[in-house]
Design brief:
Elements: H1 7-14, H2 31-36, E1 40-48, E2 64-72, E3 77-86, E4 93-107, E5 110-121, E6 134-143, E7 148-157, E8 161-170, E9 173-175, E10 180-182, E11 185-191, H3 194-201, E12 221-223, E13 229-236, E14 239-243, E15 246-257, E16 262-265, E17 268-271, E18 277-288
C-alpha cells in the first residue's frame, strides 16, 4: 500500500520556495502527518531559478535562495515563516519575508484547507509579486488513484484586490519502494490583473513589457486589469524522494502565458510582450517529529 501523499501535500513541501508560479503555491499541511495525529516542525532550504507569477516575470532574472521553518499541529493548524534572498550580482539582499497561518483537513482521499499569507518585500524588489501585500486562500485536493485533481481560489491584496483560481490534474508514479514519486502535472491559472497594473505604475517593470521596445518611459496604466481571464498554462514534473526524516524535491515548470495585457504609455497603447518560460526549483526539507513512546 502506497503512502498517502496528496498534490496539496507536495505543494506544502514546495512552499518554502514561495516564488514560482505555484506562487500560486499554497502552504498546506502534510497529509501523512495529519493522518498520523502527530505534531511536527518542518525546516527547509530551496533554490528557485526565477520568480514567475502567472507566467509573468521581470526583465531581470530573480533567483531566490529561501529558508523556512514551520510548526504543524495534529489538529491541522499550522504557522510558518520564510526568508528569501535575491542571489543576483550587485543586488544581493534579503528580498522577501513571508508569514503564513492556516488550517488543513484530511480524510481518506480528500484534503482541503484555508490559509492567510502576508508578504514584506524589500523596497528595491523588482519581482512580479512585489506589488502584493497578502493573500487569503482555500483549496481542495481529491485523489482518484489513477488521477489526482486539485483546485484552489486565492484573493490577493495590493493597492486593489485580485482573485486567482488554479485547476490542476496529475498522475503519480511510485518507485524505489514508494520512496520516489514522479507526478506529471498540467495546471491552468486564471484571474484578474490589478496587481500587475499596480506593479507597472510603480515603475518596477521595464520596457520588456512593451512589445515595440520603445524607450518612451513606463506605462501609466493597464486596460482591463479587473477583467477575469485565463492567465497561463503550466506543465510540470515534480520529483520527490523521501529518506528517513529528509525530503528532496525537484520541480521543473514550463509556463505558457496567454491574454497579453494592454499597457497605456504616454497616450499610446502597447500589448504586453509575452514569452514561454522554463524555470525550476530544488529543495531539501527536514521533519522534526517526536516519536510516541
Amino acid at each position: 500500500m502506497k503512502k498517502r501523499v496528496s498534490f496539496a501535500g507536495l505543494l506544502f513541501a514546495l512552499s518554502v520556495i514561495t516564488t514560482v508560479s505555484f506562487s500560486q503555491v499554497k502552504i498546506t499541511a502534510d497529509s501523512i502527518a495529519v493522518a498520523s495525529n502527530q505534531n511536527y516542525v518542518l525546516a527547509g532550504t530551496a533554490f528557485n531559478s526565477d520568480v514567475v507569477f502567472l507566467g509573468r516575470k521581470s526583465l531581470t532574472k530573480s533567483p531566490y535562495i529561501s529558508t523556512s521553518a514551520g510548526y504543524y499541529h495534529k489538529s491541522g493548524l499550522f504557522i510558518s515563516g520564510i526568508i528569501s534572498y535575491l542571489a543576483v550580482s550587485q543586488q544581493n539582499r534579503i528580498d522577501l519575508f513571508t508569514a503564513t497561518g492556516g488550517y488543513d483537513y484530511y480524510k481518506k482521499n480528500l484534503t482541503t484547507g484555508v490559509s492567510v499569507t502576508g508578504y514584506i518585500f524589500n523596497d528595491k524588489s523588482y519581482t512580479t509579486k512585489s506589488a502584493l501585500t497578502a493573500n487569503l486562500s482555500a483549496y481542495a485536493d481529491y485523489d482518484l488513484d489513477f488521477l489526482e485533481l486539485y483546485a484552489d481560489g486565492t484573493m490577493y491584496f495590493s493597492g486593489q484586490s485580485d482573485f486567482i483560481f488554479n485547476l490542476a490534474a496529475s498522475h503519480n508514479f511510485y518507485m524505489a519502494k514508494d520512496k520516489l514519486k514522479v507526478s506529471p502535472t498540467f495546471s491552468l491559472y486564471g484571474g484578474t490583473q490589478n496587481y500587475y497594473s499596480n506593479y507597472n505604475n510603480n515603475l518596477r517593470f521595464g520596457q520588456h513589457m512593451l512589445s515595440d521596445g520603445s524607450g518612451n518611459g513606463m506605462g501609466t496604466g493597464m486596460m482591463g486589469g479587473a477583467s477575469f481571464n485565463i492567465q497561463d498554462y503550466e506543465f510540470s514534473i515534480p520529483v520527490q524522494y523521501d529518506y528517513k526524516h529528509f525530503r528532496f524535491l525537484f520541480y521543473p515548470v514550463y509556463a505558457i502565458p496567454v491574454n497579453a495585457a494592454t499597457i497605456v504609455s504616454n497616450q499610446n497603447t502597447y500589448k504586453e510582450d509575452l514569452e514561454n518560460t522554463f524555470f525550476w526549483s530544488l529543495a531539501l526539507y527536514y521533519k522534526i517529529q517526536k516519536h510516541k513512546k
